[in-house]
Amino acid sequence: MTSLDAIRHSPSFSEAPTKSQGGRFRAAKAAEDDDGPLRLLAGGPVSDIIRAACSADEGTAAGAQFGARSSLRRHEGQPVDDSYAYLLDEDAPQKIRAILATTWVSPEALTRLLYDAFADISDRWLALQVLASERDTLDANRQAALDVVLAQAQDVPADAVRERKAGIHCAIKARLTSVEMRLEYTPAMLRATYRNFLSSNAPDIEVYQSWIAGFGHERRATVLQFVEGALVDDMQSADPSCTPTEFLTPLERLGILRRLRSCERTFVAQVSQSPHAAPFNSREEDWLHFLLAVLTDPATLDESMRAVTGKAGLLQDNGAHGRLIGLLHRACGELPGEPLQTPQARNALLDGLRLLAGSAYRDERSDGAFDPVSRHRRSA
């Protein structure tokens, strides 16, 4: 089995820029998802989801951030291009002003300037739209170069268009969600998470594990809420990133991940708070990794048990081991089946726990047979 450490929290994604202190706004921490039925899947009004996601505090934070980006343009008496609201690059206004101040007379030169200033495809497209809004202020040579670059940007593969649109549609939600997180968790990281959610062919549990690895286990519900809100915003946009048919797969995955979130929260609370688990390990994060590991591959049960109990497992007697295994058997027996577990995988996990329980029981009886104090207690 892959080491549990391999899917533990890592502080940041290398491809995402560091969040600047000046761009931080504090907001109340979002409540845990209610794990109710997925209204989007059930055909209910998506406006409820949107209203729930857009609280007053979030609106204030978004307004402040957008205002900071456009204040220079207002000060100059110029109209504010809507593209600025979706640009996640904190220095976008200054970079665009620098490009406008540069003498570029060829499409290649302008393309190089855009790539040097904006690494992300969505930010680059939005910056290009801002430049287009300034077209009348440019000389004829720069206008001609800009027109060529705009035409080239329109003529790109479908995958690039999908990535670009997805990044734009989730940008506001990414910025709002980011204010609830620590500095190192940037809007760009959330944007990358949503794009990956749309395009990934990885198993559902592996996608969930990647969120935990990237943002920490304590933020998994926040990331799930962000992805759900971003998907709704994308689907309801005037120019969505996917066709209705293409949205079916992420919609199905979202329903599965909501179900996973609900059952893992119940499992982790039941096990980590039990007195039978306390002598071994009461850390919620460790029991979460245990559950995801055995759901992914029941054959890793023994190794996962050793990983989660650690050195404490060597210090406890067989009776304590038996009580812990009994607790896990009950908790795993309450987990839902498909699509999280096939019937074969579910049976394999429960059978493995029964084998461990039987082994612990036999060892406990063997210990008692050679323990005169224990034998005296039984006779008494």
UniProtKB/TrEMBL annotation:
Record protein name field: SepL/TyeA/HrpJ family type III secretion system gatekeeper
Gene3D superfamilies according to UniProt: 1.10.150.630
Superkingdom as given in the UniProt entry: Bacteria
InterPro entries named among the record's database cross-references: HrpJ-like, Invas_InvE, T3SS_LcrE
GO cellular component: cell surface; outer membrane
Biased composition (Polar residues): 11-21
Hypersensitivity response secretion-like HrpJ domain location: 80-213
GO biological process, one term: protein secretion by the type III secretion system
Region Disordered: start-end pairs: 1-31
Pfam family, one: HrpJ
Taxonomic classification: Bacteria, Pseudomonadati, Pseudomonadota, Betaproteobacteria, Burkholderiales
